[in-house]
Amino acid sequence: MGLSNPATENRADETTTVSTMSPNWVTSRLDFLTNWARANSLWPMPFGTACCAIEYMATAASRFDIARFGMERQSFSPRQADVLICAGRLPFKLAPVIRRIWDQMPQPKWSISMGACASTGGIFDNYSMVQGIDTIIPVDVYVPGCPPRPEGLMYGILLLHKKIRGETIADEGLRVEKLVGPSGLYLPPERVDELSEPFGNSVQQTRSS
Amino acid sequence: MSTPSPAVAALRSEFGSAIGRHFVSSDQTVVFVDRDRSHDALAWLKDAPGQEFNYLTDVTAVDYRDPERSLEVVYQLRSLHRKADLRVKVGLDKREPLEVRSVVDLWRGADWLEREVYDMFGVTFVGHPDLRRILMWETYAEGYPLRKDFPLRGHFSRAEQTRQALAANPEAHYSLEELSIADAYGELPKDMQERLSRGERGFLK
């Protein structure tokens, strides 16, 4: 037959290609690979101060089991931790402690503010309580609830995974330490005041002058 | 039900005019004692036969919104073997320095209780071995939070409060030595020394 079948004709080449292809490598983007590794082995540094810590323990225990997200290794040393989970209210007396822990954690690092008190001060709009840990350390994910159920915290963890997967090592600003500056704060003072503003029902609180 | 504790009559016969009014509230007898005789009266209540209020349940204080009204230091006493309670109050005039004799020499447990009252109300306990703040940090500068004239959110702005909190250096006030039980070894009870010297929990030796 005068007609040639291209499939048959090229078969020799194809075979050659396949035989030189090793199963030991894949092509990928470096960002995808590092983010994939980082997101799936987050070692949490638990900073439990209140009832949220009870829910955190439930999340870590067998029924909900954050080992499924690569978080089974609770890091009680900040030097080997990736994500700081502040579970519970933070009094001003503990502010230098959580700041020290955050400064001790090596990059890359993230933080989850678990519950209403850690995120905003919650019901403790008074003289002794930090009005949201974002006035002390940078926060990546806020988990609302009083306290949040384990499902809530796991949703927060998955949101953090999503955030990490969107990061790129080309963004150098991402890993810059936000240290406490000469003002004694890591944010401008006006920003701290703004974040600490009363909201909701607490605006009606008249005794505060 | 509402008869006052017999301790009140005994106090009156012992201390006379130093004992103020008394009343019964929710089956609790409350008796006021003059500031100058408070330590004598409490020592007497602790040791006198028939009284023996050997357990100090609590020391606290009450501030009232009325500036004319005195701030009251409250001693809640209990006699463990007589199963009897007595609440002793000492009124302190708010226009004068808030001072009262410490009762740490009578009940060792008053140590932290009096520190808490000092921290929250600014009452000075004369003769206290270690009177400093216990709940708020050492450099806390806003005053005494449970006073009625203290604003709920404190005196300073949130930024200033945050700045001062971050500037606090806990190690400067609570040294590792202070927190270490090893240094207090000689002062520990015999049985505890014995357990520690055996190396229980890998501690010492």
Q: How are the secondary structure elements laid out?
A:
The complex is a heterodimer of chains A (209) and B (205).
Chain A: H1 6-9, H2 11-20, H3 30-39, E1 44-48, H4 51-60, E2 83-87, H5 95-104, E3 110-114, H6 115-120, E4 141-143, H7 150-165, H8 189-195
Helix pairs in contact in A: 3-7, 4-7
Chain B: H1 6-15, E1 19-25, E2 28-33, H2 38-47, E3 55-62, E4 71-79, E5 84-92, E6 99-101, H3 110-121, E7 124-126, H4 158-167, H5 170-173, H6 176-179, H7 190-197
Parallel strand pairs in B: 2-5, 6-7
Antiparallel strand pairs in B: 1-2, 3-4, 4-5
List key phrases describing it.
heterodimer; A: 209 residues; alpha/beta; Rossmann fold; B: 205 residues; Beta Polymerase, domain 2; 5-stranded mixed beta sheet; flat; disordered C terminus
Give an overview of the whole structure.
The complex is a heterodimer of chains A (209) and B (205). A four-stranded parallel beta sheet of chain A has the order 1-2-3-4. Chain A is α/β, with parallel strands linked by helices. Helix content of chain A is 35%, strand content 9%. Chain A has a domain at 30-169: Rossmann fold (3-Layer(aba) Sandwich), CATH 3.40.50.12280. Chain A is globular. Chain B is of the alpha/beta class. Chain B has helices spanning 6-15, 38-47, 110-121, 158-167, 170-173, 176-179, 190-197; strands at 19-25, 28-33, 55-62, 71-79, 84-92, 99-101, 124-126. The A-B interface holds A 92-93, 95-97, 99, 125-128, 130-131, 135-136, 180, 183-185, 189-190, 192-193, 195-196, 198, 205, 207-209 and B 135-137, 142, 145, 150-154, 157-170.
